[in-house]
Specification:
Elements: E1 9-12, H1 18-29, E2 33-37, H2 42-56, E3 60-63, H3 70-84, E4 89-92, H4 107-135, E5 138-143, H5 156-176, E6 181-188, H6 194-207, H7 211-222, H8 231-242, E7 253-256
Parallel strand pairs: 1-2, 1-4, 2-3, 4-5, 5-6, 6-7
Organism: Parvularcula maris
Keywords: Oxidoreductase
Family: Belongs to the short-chain dehydrogenases/reductases (SDR) family.
C-alpha cells in the first residue's frame, strides 16, 4: 500500500528507543532511508542502526544532536540533507516526562520538558521546511500525545508542551499547504515505552499506590479498550500520513488512543 515511500529520506528525533525506534524500523521496512537521533548507550544505538540497515537494505545513519541545543538541531537537519540529499519526512518524536504536582515542580525540569517536547519541533521544522517547500514535497509529523488533546493531573509541563505541539502543527500546516508540504500530529494513548514505565513509577509514588495499581488505573480511566496502544498502531498511522494516500490530510491531531479522547 505504501510503495510510494520507497526512496524517501526521513529524520526521526528521539528514535533510539520506544516509539521512535519503532517508527524508524517501520519506515525502513518500507524503503525509507533513516537518520536516527537520540540518547542512550552508544553500543546499543550502533547495534540497532546496523540491524535496521542490514534487515531492510536502506541507509541508516545516526546523529546524536541534543534537542535542547538549537545549533545542534540545525546541524542535524543539515547533516541529513548532506548525507541523503534531502529530507522528505520529518518526525518530531523526542520527548521526556516528569510527574509531580505543579506547586512542587522543579523549574529546570519544566524548562527542559518545554525545550525537548515543544521548542525542538520549532527548530527542526524551521530548518527542514525551506528544502521541502523548494522541492514541493514534505511530510512533517509531530508526536503530540493524547495529552495534546486532554489533560491529566501532575503533568503540567508535558500537557502544556503537547498542547503547544498541536497548535504548532496547525500553524505550519496552513503556512505550508500551497507548497506540497503537510504537517500533522499523532496523539498516541498510553503505549508501553521506557518513558511510560518511568512515568508509572512516578505516578504511583505521587498517588501513594503500587505500580501495578497505577498501570490498571491508567487503562481503566483512559482507554475504552482497556488495552495499551501498540507500536504497530502508531507505525500504520505514520505511514499513511507520510504516503501519497495521506496527501489530503494536513493540520490535524490524529488520536491513536484506544478511545481515550472519545470520552
Amino acid at each position: 500500500m505504501f510503495e510510494d515511500l520507497k526512496g524517501r529520506k526521513a529524520v526521526i528525533t528521539g528514535s533510539t528507543s520506544g516509539i521512535g525506534l519503532a517508527f524508524a524500523e517501520g519506515l525502513a521496512k518500507m524503503g525509507v532511508d533513516i537518520t536516527l537521533n537520540g540518547f542512550g548507550d552508544q553500543g546499543e544505538i550502533e547495534d540497532n542502526r546496523a540491524r535496521i540497515a542490514g534487515e531492510t537494505g536502506v541507509d541508516v545513519r545516526y546523529d546524536g544532536a541534543d534537542m535542547t541545543k538549537p545549533q545542534e538541531i540545525r546541524d542535524l537537519i543539515k547533516g541529513a540533507e548532506a548525507a541523503h540529499g534531502r529530507v522528505d519526512i520529518l518526525v518530531n518524536n523526542a520527548g521526556i516526562q516528569k510527574v509531580a504536582p505543579i506547586d512542587e515542580y522543579d523549574d529546570e525540569v519544566w524548562d527542559r520538558i518545554i525545550a525537548i517536547n515543544l521548542t525542538s519541533n520549532y527548530h527542526t521544522i524551521k530548518a527542514a521546511l525551506p528544502g521541502m517547500k523548494e522541492r514541493k514535497f514534505g511530510r512533517i509529523v509531530n508526536i503530540a500525545s493524547a495529552h495534546g488533546l486532554v489533560a491529566s493531573p501532575f503533568k503540567s509541563a508535558y500537557n502544556a508542551a503537547k498542547h503547544g505541539v498541536v497548535g504548532l502543527t496547525k500553524t505550519v500546516a496552513l503556512e505550508a499547504a500551497e507548497f506540497g508540504v503537510t504537517c500533522n500530529a499523532i496523539c498516541p494513548g498510553f503505549t508501553l515505552t521506557p518513558l511510560l514505565e518511568a512515568q508509572m513509577a512516578d505516578n504511583a509514588k505521587a498517588r501513594g499506590i503500587t505500580e501495578e495499581e497505577a498501570k490498571a488505573k491508567l487503562l481503566n480511566d483512559a482507554h475504552a479498550t482497556k488495552e495499551f496502544v501498540t507500536y504497530d498502531n502508531l507505525v500504520g498511522m505514520l505511514a499513511y500520513l507520510c504516503s501519497d494516500a495521506g496527501s489530503g490530510a494536513t493540520g490535524y491531531p490524529y488520536a491513536v488512543d484506544a478511545g481515550w479522547t472519545a470520552h
